[in-house]
Amino acid sequence: MRGPRDAGRLANLSFLVERDRRDAFLEAVRALHQEHEHLREQVTGPLPPYSFVQAG
Predict the structure, then answer these.
(1) Alpha-carbon Rg of the chain, whole angstroms?
(2) pLDDT confidence of 1, banded at 50, 70, 90?
């Protein structure tokens, strides 16, 4: 899910990750950083599930 637009960012994305897959997800983020060290990643969470519901 795309997050709110923010000036100066390439992307602002949200991912709903199952608890037992959290470590694998964070490892994937670390691998992304190793491949693209010029990019800055920021991981925030966990967020409540209602954060992923779009308003009608």
Answers:
(1) 13
(2) low
